Amino acid sequence: MSTTQYREGAKLAIVGAGAVGSSLAYAALIRGVARRVVLYDVNGPKVRAEALDLAHGGQFLPEAVIEGSDDVAITRGSDVVVVTAGAKQKPGQTRMDLAGSTVALMQKVIPPLVEHSPDATFIMVTNPVDVTTQAALKISGLPSNRLFGSGTVLDSSRLRQLIATTCDVAVGNVHAYVCGEHGDTETPLWSTATIGGVPLTEWERTTGRLGQAERDAIAHRVVNAAYEVIEGKGATNYAIGLAATRIIESVLRDERRVLPVSRMLAGWHGISGVCMAVPTVVGRDGAGTQLELPVSDDELAQLRASAEHIRAMSEGLGF
User: Fold this and answer.
1) Which of 106, 161, 191, 240 has its CA 20 to 30 A from that of 43?
2) Ranges for the Lactate/malate dehydrogenase C-terminal domain (predicted)?
């Protein structure tokens, strides 16, 4: 580890230098979210090469130091630690298929990270993210506001992009959430979705767009988006890198954005004891207030089923 003296500023540690970790580092550097970005991976030549490649573009980025190492000590004193390391999802494989091997890896990875950065906020990105978050929470002993998952931040972005394209509006004017599991049982919350403040149900009445058939088709595309990308190029990396960077920004800049991250629930619409994505205020203290937005009876039934799906998998792995 370098003995260089660093200027004051936030330190971001990214665990895993694969497609997701390196894309996340790239996005974070471009956005200027931290003064120091470190990559940690057991593959020393790979992680050092990724850091070097990123550092070579330093002239064109906000001022930052980027380093890579296979020594976990490089993460010491981090403000935010993002865990992307895990088994790679293969074509035809569900996120839950990854659970066993990934959770076993977390039992080795999490303790030394907490030891080196006991005051950090930990963001889990590794799939299946809800189960991995639940396991990491128990392994780490950290409070649930300081260790949470990326949840359905990316899924909600996919939903908003498809709604915007269908209705020919700017994606920034679409407000809609996907909640529940980051995976096959996730649920778009159509009942509270709006475009420019206009409920989607009203939008359908006045424009003839976003009828039930279109909504079902969009929901299907959102759920299967990762599989579509994986089949074509082997991994999803750019969008999750951007989504995770948005979460990191909200923590380090205390933006208090409402993001559907995966945090342990305690009575959210009667659901408790499971890590699942719901709209949450994210800021300097991590994942804070979980917003209990109105949901329809059908949506609530789907969300409860999603929670039970995550719970069953977690309990099957001893968490």
Assistant:
1) 240
2) 152-312
